[in-house]
Amino acid sequence: MKVKVHFNKTSALASDEEFEHLNAPVSNAPATSSGARTxxxxxxxxxxxxxxxxxxxxxxxxxxxxxxxxxxxxxxVRIAPLGDPMELRxxxxxxxxxxxxxxxxxxxxx
Length: 110
Prior knowledge:
Elements: E1 4-5, E2 37-38, E3 47-53, H1 57-65, E4 73-79, E5 86-90, E6 93-97, H2 99-102, E7 105-109
Parallel strand pairs: 1-3
Antiparallel strand pairs: 2-7, 3-4, 3-7, 4-5, 5-6
């Protein structure tokens, strides 16, 4: 499986040299521009596999630190009554993230 990790180059939190090992192309385009489905589109009870992490560098790094890495199996457990946040089950724990954050995670159905 080929995986892409995209960062927005506008952030100055870390130098590019620190991320060379990721071999990640830089893209300002959201996950939906390529027609890819995002985690925000997944319905309650459905399972998906993360195929890419996109968005601003600090947010993308934070999502990956929380375990939302390419190749990870994610189940949407529930969504709050007003649509935000959404509760996920992955790697043996539950995680709640905002829908805006979920839009930066490209997924494919399992």
